[in-house]
Amino acid sequence: MKFILANWKANKTIKEVQNWLDTFLLGYRPHNLVTISICAPYPFLLYIKERILGLKNVYVGAQTLSAFEQGSYTGEVTARSLSEIVKFSLIGHSERRSTFHETNEDLAIKVKLAVKYGIEPVYCVRDEKDPIPHDVKYVAYEPVWAIGTGKNEKLEDVVNMKKKLSLPKNCVFIYGGSVNEQNVGQYLTSDEVGGFLPGKASWDAKQFLSLIQAASLDESK
Ligand code: PGA
Questions:
Q1: Ligand 1 mean position to 55 CA, how many Å?
Q2: Is 156 a catalytic residue?
Q3: Where are the domains of the chain?
Q4: pLDDT band at 220, cuts 50/70/90?
Q5: Mean pLDDT of 81-102
Q6: From the candidates 93, 95, 102, 153, which is the catalytic residue?
Q7: Which residues form the signal peptide (predicted)?
Q8: How far is CA 52 from CA 18, 38, 82, 182, 203, in A?
Q9: What pLDDT does 221 receive?
């Protein structure tokens, strides 16, 4: 069972989300080979959740959440607010760390709040220098040079990095960085990589379906 998280980043209008879901729901055949999480901008989460209702192994996820629990923090979206909507939340994506200056301390608080409110954190790291909180069950390794560049890191190097990371026991190890339907197959040749975090390859529903299919086909061999 592979875990595939679509990271839509700051893209799409509601109309585009409707179209994406129309295409996705028409083409997706539920099975037990992959678990999917659609990590979308906040305004679309509830709508997506309603549209995928009853679909097996498909969930909605946030891309980050607030380091504040609740209160007078205008503009923030808290784990508490998200708790009845999402199953997962990315935490510590490299774009949050670089553009929004989120520190390891901020991220540790976010993980605690996510867990407190029943959200599964998918903790993102750039390399072995990023410490990993002990209580995460999903860790996504994304080398910065591979994000959005079309250049994915080869399996051997991903596995080498996995060895260097202080991963919590039994956590699911996810790779992200220019994963697409053409290159996903190489990661399926080993049991080391438990899932994928595609950005660009998830923005178009047809391409995302192809990626899911590629990940499922090889998995079932
Ligand atoms: P990418 O994005 O697949 O476009 O490289 C991955 C990510 O940033 O999570």
A1: 25
A2: no
A3: 2-219
A4: very low
A5: 98
A6: 93
A7: none
A8: 12, 10, 17, 26, 17
A9: 47
